[in-house]
Design brief:
With 506 residues, the protein is an alpha/beta fold. Helices cover 33% and strands 26% of the residues. The structure holds adenosine-5'-triphosphate and magnesium ion.
């Protein structure tokens, strides 16, 4: 019998299976994209969300099953064909050319031409500027993307997608590097898109966010469809039950951790901005043994740049960095690592991981031994440590020898964390460590961080999520325009106070 196509459904996947060597990423999954709605897809790291989205967007082909667009079977050979049908994807792992400008990236492959020959840079830049303005960012469209921070790159990805006139817009974790206020802007745009009839697919690990903007919620677990329901039938326990299959999530409570004396100190650390002013402006702070210090701020506040100054990655930085009463004299990253400082970087693609190396090699290469360790076979002890971390962080991987590129986004992030922890530093700097990892894994990471702090390690942690920073930090410092605009003890910190301080100078 031929059923009438459902007018409310614009695109659907039927019995879609995807097999990778060693993994069945999707197992006979049905998924409907409802017209003009926000269709939320949720599931633990490695559940198959990105794989399903890549199939919808023509990036990957299903091993079995079919796609129906407006009720008719389609088979897109690539993203260009899918885009012709109005399907546009914002990738989880951002996909920009670092050596091209913002404007060039936005129009890559669809350049605006003058007289049909020359690229009309002026027109591209103008349109890019107005797209960025719509996202409430005043980035210069001529800036090279390679100079942008990950959150800014995410804004550019969103601008690029907006410029493409999508009928179906797939957003694979568009907010993972955005702070709450930037996410608000994104939500406003999603509302506008919905009002103009665009259908949205939205993936995120921030559960409150999903409940706020989702119209339909679908849960995947281990490559299978587990549940699907309209928002009105869904609450947080429903999501967690279907995500985990009834397992309890323990986000970890804070056992009586003892916080010791200050042992790490920044004195007037500054970083000049190209073209005048300061990216980091006379930041002074003290970290105690066993303390977890949260660092909050908007995109552009200078949080990651402050970490780069601490790691001696910015030669133009000034100021003093002191560990155990001694001012550091090392002048490069290798030196800082040997001083006992480790950084978990925000950009796992660029600074964290080497894509075609195995999980084990990625975890054990420290920047120090990068070149000597490269071709060396890991010894048994290292194997044991790596396996221990894989287990401790529940990294979903077929073996420690699998290449990093075959892991889901969240599982790659867990490898970056594992690598930072294996270094056993005196001071651990974590820059958006939980970006893209699921709620259960967040609990694991926080538990491990607290355990290390209990052993006396100091931690400085950057996260854009207010609830997260309030949950994990003993003390929170807020930056705005490179300056410290607030310091709050755990007992006095509130979301309102942090937000107010984060825009104090903006
Ligand atoms: N190119 C590949 N080769 C081999 N296995 C892959 C490949 N891409 C994905 N996988 C595997 O398929 C499974 C699903 O991955 P997918 O990226 O769809 O997960 P996800 O739900 O998006 O997770 P996350 O929340 O971490 O982004 C994982 O086990 C992953 O390791
Ligand atoms: Mg994914």
């Amino acid at each position: 019998m031929n059923a009438m196509p459902d007018r409310d459904i614009i695109l659907s996947a039927r019995n879609v299976t995807k097999v990778y060597p060693g993994t069945r990423a999707l197992d006979s999954v049905d998924f409907d994209v409802r017209r003009g709605k926000v269709n939320v897809l949720i599931g633990e790291n490695g559940a198959g969300k990105s794989t399903l989205m890549k199939i919808l967007a023509g990036v990957e082909r299903a091993s079995d099953g079919k796609l129906l667009l407006e009720g008719k079977p389609v088979r897109h050979a690539d993203t260009i064909e899918a885009e012709k049908d109005g399907i546009v994807i914002i990738y989880q792992e951002l996909n920009l050319f670092p050596n091209l400008s913002i404007a060039e990236n936005i129009f890559a492959g669809r350049e605006k031409a003058r007289n049909g020959i020359h690229i009309d840079h002026r027109a591209q830049e103008e349109e890019a500027r107005s797209l960025l303005a719509r996202l409430q960012h005043d980035l210069d469209p001529k800036t090279l993307v390679g100079e942008l921070r990950i959150g800014e790159q995410q804004i550019v990805e969103i601008a690029k997608a907006l410029s493409r006139d999508a009928k179906i817009l797939i957003m694979d974790e568009p907010s993972s590097a955005l702070s709450d206020s930037e996410t608000e802007v994104l939500f406003k745009i999603i509302d506008e898109l919905k009002a103009s009839g665009v259908s949205i697919v939205y993936i995120s690990h921030r559960l409150e966010e999903l409940l706020r903007i989702g119209d339909y919620i679908t849960v995947l677990r281990d490559g299978k469809l587990r549940a699907s329901a309209p928002r009105s039938d869904v609450d947080l326990p429903w999501i967690i039950r279907h995500m985990t299959g009834g397992m309890n999530i323990d986000v970890g409570s804070d056992e009586s951790r003892k916080i010791g004396e200050p042992y790490f100190e920044l004195r007037g650390v500054s970083l000049p901005r190209v073209g005048g002013g300061w990216t980091v402006d006379k930041v002074s702070l003290r970290l105690r043994r066993g303390e977890i210090l949260g660092l909050y701020g908007l995109i552009g506040a200078g949080r990651s740049e402050l970490f780069e100054c601490i790691m001696a990655a910015r030669p133009e930085a000034t100021g003093e960095i002191v560990i155990n009463g001694k001012t550091l004299t090392t002048s490069d990253i290798a030196g800082r690592i040997s001083d006992g400082i480790a950084l978990i970087p925000e950009d796992r693609q660029r600074e964290g991981l080497i894509q075609n190396l195995s999980v084990a090699s990625n975890m054990t290469i420290s920047s120090l031994g990068r070149f000597t360790k490269f071709f060396r076979i890991l010894d048994a002890e290292e194997d044991r440590e790596v396996d221990g971390r894989i287990k401790q962080l529940s990294i979903k991987v077929s073996s420690r020898d699998a290449s990093i590129g075959s892991l889901s986004g969240g599982n790659q992030q867990k490898v970056v964390i594992g690598k930072g922890l294996l270094a056993c530093p005196k001071v651990l700097l974590m820059d958006e460590p939980t970006r893209g990892i699921d709620v259960a894994a967040k609990g694991d990471v926080f538990r491990i961080v607290r355990a290390l702090a209990s052993d006396g390690m100091g931690v400085i942690l950057v996260t854009s999520e207010l609830k997260e920073i309030l949950a994990i930090s003993d003390r929170i410092i807020v930056l705005s325009k490179g300056r410290v605009t607030g310091t709050f003890d755990r007992s006095e910190a509130t979301e309102e106070k942090l937000v107010a301080a984060s825009v104090a100078l903006a």
